[in-house]
Amino acid sequence: MARAHPPAEYAALDLLATLVAVVDGQGCIRFANHALEDAIGLSRRNLLGVDLADWLMQPQLWRNALDGAQAHEYAVVRYDTQLRRLLREPLPVHLVLAATESREQRVVEMLPLEQQARQEREERLLEQAQANKELIRNLAHEIKNPLGGIRGAAQLLQLELGDRADLAEYTDVIVHEADRLQALVDRLLAPHRRAPQWGEVNIHEVCERVRAILLAEFPRGLEVVRDYDTSIPEFRGDRELLIQAVLNLAHNAAQALRERIEAGDARITLRTRVQRQVTFGKRRVRLALELHVIDNGPGVPEDIRDRIFYPLVSGRDGGTGLGLTLAQTFVQQHQGLIECDSRPGHTDFTILIPLS
């Protein structure tokens, strides 16, 4: 498709992955960005002067929205509709029309509903992480003080018992379990105690370190595949925190692959890519690192799929439920997030971190 050069004042809109149109007061298209051209299947030369209503499945809804914006009845109008496309099925979109000072021009933003759902999911993940942080701090405060008292009392009781070995084993259990709970609380608090040590990070050095650790622990039956985009630049980050985050994901995958490791056909893939025009909550970045940890295991149990990043939630017998929580925390300290797509035979944990 031939690309027409946009007017200077609209040039920045071509950099957006969101579908954007500039319309006049009657709803006729004065500009369409590259994303909208691609979605509809027509160049902007052919779209100029066309009524946007012709490309919407519910034109009357659009008319009502435009009339309301023209009359300054609404600051912002949002609604779901469908965008017509050449030779393809209509595209479900979330349309946003914002009122401006000018009655001669309106900017229309259309987010494919899949993208809208992703933004909402990312916002929920960020809110969940903040709630987890508060929960952990409160939990630690409530546990640490009485835990110290219990342990101290058990030790004093040990001294009073003297040679009563038959009773001393009970105080030993109390001390041991108190220490185990203290270690659990310390692990929960660890990400919030240590400030990140920022430096230049090569993500493939991180992946190679994780790969070496995995193969040392599982020397037979597990293949760790490299699928790297070597053009990815170095970025500012904490190398050790990122190693721990990726290792937690990879180790979880290896634990889920126990049966396939015994059968000799277990596989974990470390894949790196660059993604452009990525949103993190309500923030858009030009470039982002996309690191996948993919395994061919049984998948995340459906009953915990929406809760896997909560602390103490585990789908494995004997698991602490901290690995994914800590990994998400470490990645969020880099302004990024972790997403999960899982089905039997294919689980993909994706780390997204801004590069610019």
UniProtKB/TrEMBL annotation:
Any matching Pfam family = HATPase_c
Q: Which SMART domains match?
A: HATPase_c (SM00387), HisKA (SM00388)
Catalytic activity as recorded in UniProt: ATP + protein L-histidine = ADP + protein N-phospho-L-histidine
Where is the Histidine kinase domain positioned along the sequence?
138-356
Per the UniProt record, the source organism is Tepidimonas alkaliphilus
Described by its record, this protein's role is as follows: Member of the two-component regulatory system NtrB/NtrC, which controls expression of the nitrogen-regulated (ntr) genes in response to nitrogen limitation. Under conditions of nitrogen limitation, NtrB autophosphorylates and transfers the phosphoryl group to NtrC. In the presence of nitrogen, acts as a phosphatase that dephosphorylates and inactivates NtrC.
The record's CDD domains line, in alphabetical order, gives:
HisKA, PAS
Q: Which UniProt keywords apply?
A: ATP-binding, Kinase, Nitrogen fixation, Nucleotide-binding, Phosphoprotein, Transferase, Two-component regulatory system
Protein name per UniProt? Sensory histidine kinase/phosphatase NtrB
